[in-house]
């Protein structure tokens, strides 16, 4: 696939403030964070500790940030972090995190402390965007003094919590709009060429290159394949241009790339990727797959 031209900017020239403003002005609200996310989170208050850990400056009233914790945290229990909606447009990451809390989190609360941030990028959720309003990708911005306030808010929450994470599961999607919109926009913004346009048909995981924890990843894949299909490798034996570590799993340098999966020093880390545009899947199936990934990982950790 040839790299597509993009409607904003000049080919070969990085965007400045004017181009970023033009991009922002082209965005619009397409769905409701309050109705689809906040209402579900607040409904959990009778069973979990629901805390607001910040709000986005773009519209603090419209975009509060919430964390959900299991009751009765115990320093003797390992702590699990589940994050969703780092890329707001990746719907099942958000809804999968909420569904996990609604249906499964309590089943593990006697063994683990569990912290879930279901929607890190609510503006991105409403506008169905990968970036924030400043044309910054929050999932490349998990570093000290982050330029993305979505990322900075989570970093601050974790620092104030002061708890060592045992595992971190970050919920994502790979969609057809990655090719039709988001990669062309990225190429235009940064004045770069993209050569890989393969979108895997199915679920896969992204582990940490430095700390892959293969058995943990395997357990999650085995759990997910009970509810949906796992992405096969492409003709070159890769997924999104990266060599397979095992069936359905590739590895990234999570900390070096500023990924959410690298935000803690957790021993067990993964990023889920579902493909909602597959003819073999649908929105509900993607949500169920996210939950199966989390429970598969937690069930494995219980065996250690």
TrEMBL record:
Listed cofactors: Zn(2+)
UniProt-recorded Gene Ontology molecular function terms: hydrolase activity, acting on ester bonds; metallocarboxypeptidase activity; zinc ion binding
Residue numbers annotated as active site: 273 (proton donor/acceptor)
Entry-linked Gene3D superfamilies: Zn peptidases
Record domain Peptidase M14: where: 29-298
GO terms classed as biological process: proteolysis
This protein's UniProt keywords: Carboxypeptidase, Hydrolase, Metal-binding, Protease, Zinc
A Pfam short name: AstE_AspA_cat
Family under the similarity heading: Belongs to the peptidase M14 family.
Protein name per the record: Zinc carboxypeptidase-related protein
């Amino acid at each position: 696939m040839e790299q597509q031209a993009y409607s904003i900017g000049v080919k070969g020239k990085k965007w400045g403030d004017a181009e970023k403003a033009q991009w922002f002005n082209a965005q619009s609200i397409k769905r409701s964070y309050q109705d689809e996310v906040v209402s579900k989170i607040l409904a959990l208050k009778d069973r979990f500790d629901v805390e607001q850990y910040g709000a986005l400056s773009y519209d603090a009233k419209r975009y509060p940030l919430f964390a959900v914790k299991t009751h009765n945290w115990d320093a003797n229990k390992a702590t699990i972090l589940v994050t969703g909606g780092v890329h707001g447009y990746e719907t099942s990451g958000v809804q999968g995190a909420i569904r996990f809390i609604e249906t499964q989190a309590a089943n593990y609360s006697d063994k683990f402390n569990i912290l879930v941030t279901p929607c890190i990028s609510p503006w991105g959720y409403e506008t169905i965007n990968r970036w924030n309003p400043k044309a910054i990708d929050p999932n490349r911005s998990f570093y000290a003094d982050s330029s993305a306030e979505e990322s900075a808010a989570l970093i601050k929450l974790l620092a104030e919590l002061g708890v060592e994470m045992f595992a971190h599961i970050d919920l994502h999607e790979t969609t057809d709009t990655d090719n039709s919109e988001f990669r062309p926009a990225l190429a235009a913004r940064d004045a770069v060429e993209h050569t890989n346009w393969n979108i895997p048909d199915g679920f896969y995981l992204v582990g940490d290159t430095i700390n892959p924890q293969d058995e943990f990843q395997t357990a999650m894949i085995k759990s997910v394949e009970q509810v949906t299909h796992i992405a096969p490798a492409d003709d070159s034996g890769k997924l999104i241009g990266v060599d397979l570590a095992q069936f359905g799993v590739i590895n990234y340098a999570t900390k070096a790339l500023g990924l959410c999966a690298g935000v803690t020093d957790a021993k067990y880390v993964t990023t889920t990727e579902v493909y909602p545009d597959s003819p073999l899947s649908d929105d509900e199936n993607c949500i169920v797959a996210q939950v199966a990934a989390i429970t598969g990982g937690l069930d494995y950790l219980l065996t250690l």
